[in-house]
Amino acid sequence: MSTARVVYQLARADFFERIRRFSFAVTLVATVIVAYIFVPANGASYTTLDLGGHRGLYNSAWIGAQVSMLTSIFLVLIGFYLVRNAVGRDRTTRVGQIIAATPLPKSVYTLGKWLSNCMVLGLIGGVVVIGAAVLQLVRGEDMVMKPLLLIAPFISLMLPAIALVSAIAVLFECIPFLSGALGNIIYFFLFPQLVTSEMLGGPKILGVSYFTQAMQTACRASYPDYVDALAFGINFHSGKVSDLGTFVWNGMPVSVEFILSRTFWLVAAIGIALAAAIPFDRFDASKSRSGSRRAVRAPRFARLRRWFGGRGEWTISGTETALATGIPAGHVHLTPLAGNRSRGRFGGILLANLRLALRSMPWWWRIGALAVIICEILIPSQAVHMFVLPAALIWPVMILASLGNREVHHATHQIVFSAPHPLRRQLFAAWLTGVTLMLLLVSGAGARWAIGGEWSRLVALLTGAAFAPSLALALGAWSRTSRLFEVIYLFWWYIGPVNAIPALDYAGTSITAGAPGVTMLYVAAAVLLLVIGFLGARRQLTT
Question: Where are the beta strands (DSSP E) in 51-116?
Answer without folding.
Answer: 54-56
